[in-house]
Amino acid sequence: MSDVVETVFRLGGVASCDELRSHGHSLRDVDREVRRGAAERLRRGWVALPGAPADVVAAVSAGGVVSCLSALRRHAVWTGLDERLHVRVPRFAHLAGDAEPLALTFHRSLQLRDVVPARGGVDSLGWSIAHAVSCQQRSDAVASLDSVLHRGLMSRASLSRLLAQLPATFRDYLTLCDPRAESGVETRARLGLRAVNIRCRPQVRIDGVGRVDLLVGDRLVIEVDGGRWHSGPDAVRADKARDLAAAERGYLVLRLTYEQVMFEWPRVVAVIRGMVARGEHTWSARHRRGGLVCL
Length: 295
Prior knowledge:
This is Endonuclease domain-containing protein. InterPro entries: DUF559, Restrct_endonuc-II-like. Keywords: Endonuclease, Hydrolase, Nuclease. It comes from Herbiconiux daphne. One of its GO terms (molecular function) is endonuclease activity. The structure is a single chain. This protein is α+β, with helices and mostly antiparallel strands and 295 residues long. The protein is elongated and about 85 Å long. It has 14 helices and ten strands. The chain has helices at residues 3-10, 17-22, 27-35, 54-61, 68-72, 125-135, 138-150, 156-163, 168-171, 184-195, 233-248, 258-263, 265-277, 285-289; strands spanning 14-16, 40-43, 46-48, 65-66, 85-89, 104-108, 200-206, 210-216, 220-224, 252-256. Helix content is 42%, strand content 16%.
């Protein structure tokens, strides 16, 4: 493996000539690898190895780099239902006429300062977050930010500095964030309850049960399935055991699926509002008489 090919490989299979020059490779070295078939030219100033990631090849070939939600997925950050390929292009780029058949979503570069540049045709975390925040509806954008904080990918202070460079519409999103959220659907449920003035606490620890996703009032536990598919049998058994332990202690458990939060939220929130209206979320005198509440 030549030095040029090895460098491109370390960069993920795609590289700009500027990146290669920064690693000590001349344009002549790059041209030699292209001529002998070890690399292919994607567009002027960019090369790729055979078998390079298809999304990066498509983004670079279209004149940009993988960014926004597509880049965040590489960090296992919440990206909602959007599975399109998001591409950041220069602010005044001329977009190719065949962009639509390629199913690409283009983002013209925001004006950001002190953000790490793209590497190997994939945007840095800072660029990706900034574009994802301005690309999504608010609940999904906050869910992405929660995910970034929960995974420790960026500090709240760093996110604050980044969001301060965006239009005022997006600057208050950080005030809605909670790094305790363990999934995007949990964030969406929390924000959905907040929108109808139902207060809830995330990731509350209950003795004998463990941490629950959301607790409304004293005793209404809301557990949210963070995956789009059903959990395996071991996880289901563990959930049932936790639900039984919670019921033993007088808690009501409402377990919601991914689909219910994402597609049936009006129905879900109507159920929760009804339970709150009936006072089922608070301890009552009968619970105290039954010894469920410590006096």
